[in-house]
Amino acid sequence: MKNKTVKALPALLLLLSLSPSAMAQQRMREAVMIKRYAADTLTAFPTKAPLFVKFFSPPEESLLSRCGVIKALTGRHYILRQLPADSTGRKKIQYSYTANANYKATDNLLKQLEFLQPGDSAEVQLSYSGEHFTAPHVRTLYTIDRYHAAVVKLQQRDWPALIAMGNVTGANLVRHASPEVIINTINPYVNRINVAQQQFPAIRGKSVTVSVKEELFDTTDIDLAGRFLPSALQAKTNNAHATIMATLLAGAGNSGANGLGVAPGARLTSSSYAVLFPDPDTYYRSFGIALQNHSYGIGIEYNYDAEAVAYDQQVQKADTLTHVFSAGNSGAAIPTAGRYQGVGTYANLTGNFKQAKNVLVIGGTEANFQVATLASRGPAYDGRIKPEIVAYGQDGTSGAAALTSGVVALLQDAHRQLRGVAPSSALVRALLINSAVLPPGKGPAYTYGFGSLHAAAALTALSAGRYRQGTVLPGNTTAFDIPVPAGLRQVKVTLCWNDPAAVLNAPKALVNDLDMQAVTPDGNTWQPWVLNPFPAVDSLLQPAHRGIDSLNNTEQISIDRPAAGNLHITVKGKKVTTTNQPFYIVYDFIREPSFAWQNPVNGSMLAASQPTPLQWETTYSGAGDLAYSVDSGATWTNIAQQVPLQSPYNWNVPALFSKVWLKLTLTDTAFISPPCYIAPQLTLSTGFNCSDSAMVFWQQLPGVKGYQAYVLSQGVMTPYKQLTDTFLFIPKQSTASMYYAISPIAPAGWEGPRSYASNYALQGVGCYIKALLADPTTDNQVVLTLSLGSTYMLKSINWERRSANGWTQLGTQPAGTSTNYNFMDQNPYEGVVQYRVRLERQDGKVIYSDVSSANILLQHDILVFPNPVISQLIILDKNYRARQLVLTDMSGRIVMQRTINDIQEYIGVDRLAPGVYNCSVFLGNQRIYSRQIVKQ
């Protein structure tokens, strides 16, 4: 009894430290937990039924393992198969009950059901065993038989009987996905996408079809058109978020630099995320899909539920199919259920499908590689490392996932070019994880996984063949030798495998447990990096340490300054439930000393007068001086001094049109960049858009040789004409495309950046005329304002006003170089006065503007016309006010009554019989206008 009192003391002290209101809230929460999960019987003896148990404090893994965990409800509440057999273990238990069947349901579903009345209805997603699902007192709305899932509708009173059914294995809310955050730009420098595209120009994703699972993207967008494959699963509505995701992933760059995605050659298809389960296998097979992007989320979920099981099952079966998920933007949220309930801002992934083992979950960073505050982080519900890697996604993790999917498409395309087949998704994950960049001096962590995406390093490892494939039998070991050169700063090896799906709500998702070990030539043994999954903030924050990993189907070993010779890698099948388990290992070397420019790379185009990040990768430490040269290094202009080597430097690029070299000078050496270019970006404007031709123009740049015009042809911006003038005529009869772009050509022959593609028909310019406005003045004159797109070949501008006999010329003036003109009509007539402009060209062609109108009241506050009227009365008023229009026939019967609010109203009178009517306008009860009108 004394020992029991000692064990209860921490909980007692905690209660004593709480305020009365806090104590009451805690007692209420505890009562809810007991009511939710406990049967009537308090358990103090062995039982075959599951047990609802609360510990005084979070228990250690070894104790839980002995008790047979069925489900972690919180860090202290568990559903167990049995109580500890030893008295020491039992003294750690605060109470235990026989559990009811509610443990099979999610916490969020139970909360919703508790708010309902017995007669209220609810929709529930069920997981079931057996071939088909039936149950009394429920209505099945639909089933997904391949994943043994059903959505049913039932009354709240029927819930206990339903969840207690033996064939019901799990239950959840019917959840609906939504985009995480809209991303509006791409930065290819942070994750070395620009380096990958420059070093591997033949790898563009052309052999890959990517599915974007969410709403439908804009299939007519010029960066996506021509590569879209329609499917029966696509959503019926377009979504801007989906368009941006598709563009980040595979945009062709036709619209401009921000429209160039990671894999611009990939084909695209779409499926709706109305169903959160994986799409049917036939969908992936029929389109040849080996990659699907998921930039969406639902609420924070903490368990290995039906969707997570389904994705693991599908990937393990398909093997070459890679799913990429955004981690979510709930990084500031504290979990409210599960093992990590209340344990700081951890374990807040948005959706249980992101708890799957065989998928990639991508977190988000800022441009400086720091994890974004709002980016969701791990661990997974069972302590696994999630997200696997992070990437820069402006304003969220949606873009981070899309960019990573683009890199996966490049890896898949490269593997097909090298091997003729699609790669295993386990190999893809291993390549991305092994090449990811960890913070200096750090190991894996629950915030950033195994590091930041490095596109170029992943492609380099694949093309260099720095990977091995193997299989391991139960209890057996497979070994590899990797030749390690001398003078390395680090060698890194990553093991990945596609693991069989665990059972629904498994307390630990890992099924086949493989153990990797490395032995260096000097005889030292190295184990993988592991993290402390214990549900406490200080445990989750602990640095990675070396140990045996029995949680993850990814293991990584890194060795600093390894001895030269053969690195002996062994993979042991510690626990393999299948006949054999395929796996992949990927390895890479960091040499010392090393330095490589990452931006700019060879041929980079830097926008003049715009900031750009200067980036490099190096094993050097300290700081250096930056400078640039425009004369092949003969002279250098200072940029900045003592720039830290471990951070990028944002350079405000000067206003140049020149070939440029950059230099970073250290104490005893200097590194000169490959040649790059600085040039302004031109802007296209529409001069005119007439029936037979159009004209676009741009600003003149000093020092250029000419300009290269591009036209959108068959989905690609294609060279059209070289020009020395600053305008381009477009004959519509021979050129159907409306999209054009322009780039400057230097005297040395190199070409500057292409302008954004412009559709000349969408710039608000007609045949020369942008707009004609007619604005009355306070003294009843009318100011006419004309805006033109261009005055090329224009001779004169003629101002005209409509009169009873047609159009009358008010004045004329010669066309000059200005595109804006004004004219004053000093004597307009009363009513709606209409104006237009007549343009005369030097070749005699005449162009008319649209009609513009002004309302003029000279003698009256209110004017009603025309009179006689045929179909429509116009009412003009000097003031905005609510009035009543009343029409009566000659016998005094009201035939029409309308409320009018604007200064100009149009009233249809088509249905009135021909005749004479009294027209009155009332302001409140006061008649302010009265006159007879004739309806013809």
Protein model, in words:
15% of the residues lie in helices and 37% in strands. It has 14 helices and 58 strands. The chain has a six-stranded parallel sheet with strand order 12-11-13-15-16-17. Strands 29, 31, 32, 34, 35 and 36 form a six-stranded mixed sheet that branches. A five-stranded antiparallel sheet has the order 1-5-2-4-3. Strand 31 (623-629) and strand 32 form a beta hairpin. Helix 7 packs parallel to helix 13 (455-463) and helix 11 (397-419) runs parallel beside helix 13. It is globular, with a radius of gyration of 36 Å. Residues 1-16 have low confidence and may be disordered.
Order of neighbouring strands in the sheet with most strands: 12-11-13-15-16-17
Shape: globular
Please report the distance between the alpha carbons of the first and last residues: 107 Å
Fraction of helical residues: 10-25%
| Alpha plus pi helix count | 14
